[in-house]
Amino acid sequence: MKGRCLISLLLPMLLLCVSCTQQPEKKGAPEKVARAKAASAKKSPLKIIHLAGETTGINPRAGKLTIRGKDGDVDIYATEKTIIHIGRDQSRLSDITAGNRATVKYLELDGKNIARSIFIAREAPEEKEPPKDEPPSPQPPEKITPEQPPSDSQKPPLPPS
C-alpha cells in the first residue's frame, strides 16, 4: 500500500518536471542570421505619396490613371486592392472621366506607382440664383413721431358696441 502511494505521488511530479523543462532554441548558422539582418536593414520603408491634380487619361484595361499634378503628369496603376471613391460613393476605375479633380495615395514599387486609394471630387452643383426681392413700394414709409397721432391705418380696431 505504501508503494502504491509513493508511486502515485512521484509519477505526477516526474511528468510535471519533464513537461516544464525548456528545450534549447534551434538557431541557424550565425553568418546566415547576420546576413538576414543586414538585408532587412538595407530595405527602405515604404512611403505613401499624396498627389492631387486633374485626371488626364484613364485606361481601365491596363488599370492605369494619369494625373496632372503641379510637378507634371504621373501615371498611377490601380490594383484590385485599390480603394476608389467618386464623391462618397465607392466606384470603379472605369467610372472615372478625364477632367475630374482627384486625390491619390500611392506607393512607388519597382518603378511603378501603385495606388492605395483614389478619391474623385464630384463637381459642385451649379449655384442657383438667389430669389429676387420684390421691388420697394413707390410710397415712402410713414414716419410716426411721439407728438403726432397714428394714422387711421395704424389705429387699433375698436371693439363692437
Per-chain topology:
Elements: H1 2-20, H2 30-42, E1 49-59, E2 64-69, E3 72-77, E4 83-86, E5 89-90, E6 101-109, E7 112-120
As a whole number of angstroms, the C-alpha radius of gyration is 40 Å
Number of helices in the DSSP assignment: 2
**CATH architecture assignment of the domain at 49-120:** Beta Barrel
Uncertain segments of ≥5 residues (pLDDT<50)? none
Overall geometric form: flat
Overall strand count:
7
Give the ordered list of helices and strands: HHEEEEEEE
| Largest sheet data | 7 strands, mixed
The share of residues in helices is: 10-25%
CATH superfamily label of the domain at 49-120: Copper binding periplasmic protein CusF
> Regarding CATH, which class of the domain at 49-120?
Mainly Beta
CATH fold-type name of the domain at 49-120: OB fold (Dihydrolipoamide Acetyltransferase, E2P)
What does this protein structure show overall?
Helices cover 20% and strands 29% of the residues. The chain is α+β, with helices and mostly antiparallel strands and 161 residues long. The protein has a domain at 49-120: Copper binding periplasmic protein CusF (OB fold (Dihydrolipoamide Acetyltransferase, E2P), Beta Barrel), CATH 2.40.50.320. Strands 3-2-1-6-7-4-5 form a seven-stranded mixed beta sheet, with no helix packed on it. Strand 4 (83-86) and strand 5 (89-90) form a beta hairpin. The longest helix is centred in the N-terminal third of the chain and has 19 residues, at 2-20. It is flat and about 125 Å long. The mean pLDDT is 77.
